[in-house]
Design brief:
With 377 residues, the protein is α+β, with helices and mostly antiparallel strands. It folds into 2 domains: 172 residues, Aminopeptidase (3-Layer(aba) Sandwich); 193 residues, 3-Layer(aba) Sandwich (Aminopeptidase), CATH 3.40.630. The chain is 37% helix and 28% strand. The chain has 14 helices and 13 strands. Strands 1, 2, 3, 4, 5, 6, 7, 8, 9, 10, 11, 12 and 13 form a 13-stranded mixed sheet that branches. The radius of gyration is 21 Å and the shape is globular.
Length: 377
Amino acid sequence: MTVEITPVRGFMDLREFIFLPYRLHAGTPWVPPLKLERYAFLNRRLNPYFTHGAAELFLARRGGRVVGRISAQINAAFNRQHESRWGNFGFLELEDDAEVLAALIQTAAEWVRARGMERLVGPMDFSMNDESGILIEGFDRPPMIRQAWHPPYYQKLFEGAGLTKAMDLLMWELYFSARYTGMMKVLPEIAERARTEHGVRIRRMSRRHLRRDLDEFAKVYNAAWAKNWDFVPFSKADLDFEALNFQLIYDREWFMVAEIEGETVAVAITIPDINQVLRKMNGRLLPLGWWQFLRRRQIMDQVRVGFLGVIPEHQHTGVAAALYMEQFDVAERGPRKGGEMGWILETNKSMNRAMEAMGGRIVKRYRVYEQVFDAAG
């Protein structure tokens, strides 16, 4: 039977799109997201991605049975920033079937190419700040918040289809005990000089003023990440959306701002791993999922360091080391003793060296692929 690709039209198609990974990955380390959250995330009126991007969702069927899914999208904000013409794909899930992958990728490629794009890059849901890449190392580890999980056959299918590597994304494991066993001894000295010689002070973001503090975060992010391969500046709508999400998992100890004379020079946002709770909820609030969510502070014992950046003109001050040491302190005195940092681009040599200096180790690797279109058409 041939593979049929159709765009998502109406509620029943959307339901099939959302429910597919629950069937594909049952009994694996994959963590089922809350289904209500997935409906909201894909809603064009609620997700700020659609203020600067366009997308289409597709389902693959064989004999009337859903066997795969994909999104095709164009992030206009990214293309403006990089003066590029990239199209993207995301939300990729499929059975172990090379014909299905070929049909899905061809559909996404045709969709973005018809809109003037020169290459197809992905997966990313919808941007690189959400689930991104195909897991190629670390299959035995459950994904943390905003991390994808795929079985090994995904990589095999991708490389068999002729897609090429665009970039690897690294996740580093780090626990507070590393400060005594694997951390470079010079880091505490650098952190202390940041305080005594440069006047670095670390404060916590407050829940009440979280949205205001995210404006400070955006200033750092839009400066520190500006030259990154994947960079897209945060808009006001993006920050509004992140503020709502962060309120659900906010932990004052882990949301940090570094200042010199009252001016923000660096931020570190570390997120308690809500996936530990979602695993118990199994994608549902009812009948007892709500109870697991209310108990989330007792369940979550690890974190993901999602953002740690320094405004370039202050990188010489040692403020990054001060934030690293502050996080070690928080982990040592609190219930969450560590977790994972990243993802970090494989090309980001300074951050990867910093992870090594703190005694971290790479535990997951995600790969972003691309297809460059030939000029002939």
